[in-house]
């Protein structure tokens, strides 16, 4: 398979970047998208060119490290797959493929295709947890009955891997799908109730501080999410935040 | 965990609540406005008198006056809030993508809400200049029936729609409004937290029908006035 790759090259966070063109041949159908980039990088290194920097870790679609905006879509043309699970058989010989970093003010480029997504970590730290005493008198998680349907929906929300595809694909660079998944995974469970109101207020506040955009409910995030996180979570967060705002006494 | 509450002002979510609430309120205004306009299907002297009596009621009855001020405020709030949201959204992505395929995952109307809203605002300004301003501050011919003085808004209205380009502009603006509503109305429910596997599909269908039916009603009246030209036979 012969391809023309148009890749965003940027030497560092402050450097000015640009799209550069790389013709590549010998790509096989069975290669994953990241293997194709490895293949390109080997060639670039042999030719004395700086290899393309991109994020990756597990390459099994569960860690949330790989990103990439491929041909105008986060994680490329596939549905419910991360870039590492996208295979070159989805493309045809002769194709031109645009490869760009996830774009958002809150996701600044570190180098080439690698972006800094620690804004997500800061949102998590603002309230994406429950306070549990673990010093000797740990409570068994199964001691509190949970309705099956609620447990399932909390688990669905918890499958969010925090990759940032929702932000990358949103025309407003909104982080609502990510934040709402992280709020919902606790707000649906009894263990999450004591801190529920503070959690949603604090996490939304941090989301705003990071400079993400607002939600227009286009639904693009749900379509591009590799884990199929539902827009229902955004509605739940809207609901929770509204009640928390109205009832907060601080 | 620290509690940070900005109440119902300042946060991104609060801005969206106001957007949704003012939008839904303006939808109820549209229904009222359309019901009033349907009287224009009655032609002749009978239609003129009924419409002008309605006009007198709408500009003098205290409850309607209060509602009209709430409506002006809602338009202003929806506009200013929308501008602030659009500015923030723009700032949230300083460097644009070289290649974007937004049509792959979102409807056209949902991606063009600011543009469609601006078109609608432009229309409202023209529309209010044509009728609202004339009725309140301009010159409108008057006549008396049983000692009550009526402003002849009917003649101003039917005459405006004898003009083909005014009618065409009106139709285009209302189609823009239909697209704006087709995303906006059902989206307002999601923003206010209403999403349920059983009810959301019904809300989406019903609000989709509303979004097209209401502008279709306005367009039907306008086209009727253009075709029939009831002002010529008075």
CATH uppermost class of chain B: Mainly Alpha
CATH-scheme architecture of the largest domain in chain A: Orthogonal Bundle
Element order of chain B: H for helix, E for strand? HHHHHEEHHH
Domain module count of chain A: 2
Please explain how this structure is put together.
The complex is a heterodimer of chains A (250) and B (234). Chain A is α+β, with helices and mostly antiparallel strands and 250 residues long. Chain A contains 8 helices and 7 strands; from the N terminus they run E-E-H-E-E-E-E-E-H-H-H-H-H-H-H. Chain A has helices at residues 33-46, 118-125, 148-158, 165-169, 176-187, 196-209, 220-224, 232-247, and strands at residues 3-9, 18-24, 69-70, 73-74, 96-100, 109-111, 114-115. In chain A, the strands form 2 sheets. Chain A has a 5-stranded mixed β-sheet. Chain A has a two-stranded antiparallel sheet with strand order 6-7. In chain A, a hairpin with a 2-residue loop joins strand 6 and strand 7 (114-115). Chain A is elongated. The termini of chain A are far apart. Chain B has a single domain (12-91, 112-233), classed as 3 helical TM bundles of succinate and fumarate reductases (Up-down Bundle). Chain B is built from 8 helices and 2 strands, in the order H-H-H-H-H-E-E-H-H-H. Chain B has helices spanning 12-37, 44-60, 62-91, 108-111, 113-136, 153-160, 164-191, 200-228; strands at residues 142-145, 148-151. At the A-B interface, helix 6, helix 7 and helix 8 of A face helix 1, helix 3 and helix 7 of B.
């Amino acid at each position: 398979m012969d391809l023309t790759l148009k890749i965003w090259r940027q030497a560092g966070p402050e450097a000015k970047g640009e799209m550069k063109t790389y013709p590549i041949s010998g790509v096989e159908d069975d290669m994953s998208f990241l293997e194709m980039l490895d293949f390109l990088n080997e060639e670039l290194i042999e030719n004395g060119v700086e290899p393309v920097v991109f994020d990756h870790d597990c390459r099994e679609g569960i860690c949330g490290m790989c990103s990439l905006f491929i041909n105008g879509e986060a994680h490329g043309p596939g549905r419910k797959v991360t870039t590492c699970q996208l295979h070159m058989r989805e493309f045809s010989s002769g194709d031109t493929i645009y490869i760009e970093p996830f774009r958002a003010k809150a996701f600044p480029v570190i180098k080439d295709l690698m972006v800094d997504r620690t804004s997500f970590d800061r949102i998590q730290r603002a309230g994406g947890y429950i306070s549990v005493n673990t010093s000797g008198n740990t409570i068994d998680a199964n001691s509190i009955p949970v309705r099956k349907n609620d447990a399932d929906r909390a688990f669905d929300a918890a499958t969010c891997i925090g990759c940032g595809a929702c932000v990358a694909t949103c025309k407003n660079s909104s982080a609502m799908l990510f934040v709402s998944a992280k709020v919902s995974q606790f707000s649906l469970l009894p263990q999450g109730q004591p801190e529920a109101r503070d959690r949603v207020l604090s996490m939304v506040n941090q989301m705003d501080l990071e400079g993400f955009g607002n939600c227009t409910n286009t639904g693009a995030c749900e379509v591009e999410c590799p884990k199929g996180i539902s827009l229902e979570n955004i509605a739940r967060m809207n609901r929770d935040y509204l009640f928390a705002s109205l009832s907060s006494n601080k | 965990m620290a509690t940070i509450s900005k109440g119902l002002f300042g946060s991104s979510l609060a801005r969206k609540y106001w957007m949704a609430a003012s939008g839904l309120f303006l939808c109820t205004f549209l229904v009222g406005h359309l019901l009033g306009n349907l009287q224009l299907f009655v032609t002749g002297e009978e239609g003129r008198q009924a419409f002008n009596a309605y006009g007198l009621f709408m500009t003098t009855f205290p409850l309607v006056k209060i509602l009209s001020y709430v409506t002006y405020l809602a338009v202003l709030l929806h506009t200013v809030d929308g501008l602030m949201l659009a500015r923030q959204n723009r700032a949230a992505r300083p460097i644009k993508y070289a290649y974007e395929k937004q049509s792959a995952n979102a409807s056209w109307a949902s991606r063009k809400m600011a543009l469609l809203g601006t078109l609608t605002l432009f229309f409202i300004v023209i529309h209010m200049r044509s009728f609202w301003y004339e009725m309140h501050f301009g010159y409108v011919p008057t006549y008396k029936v049983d000692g009550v003085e009526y402003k002849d808004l009917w003649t101003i209205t039917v005459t405006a729609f004898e003009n083909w380009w005014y009618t065409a502009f009106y139709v285009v603006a209302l189609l823009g409004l239909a697209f704006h509503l087709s995303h906006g109305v059902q989206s307002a429910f999601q923003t206010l937290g209403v999403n349920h596997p059983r009810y959301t599909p019904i809300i989406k269908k019903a609000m989709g029908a509303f979004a097209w039916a209401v502008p279709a009603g306005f367009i039907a009246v306008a086209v009727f006035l253009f075709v029939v030209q009831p002002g010529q036979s008075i």
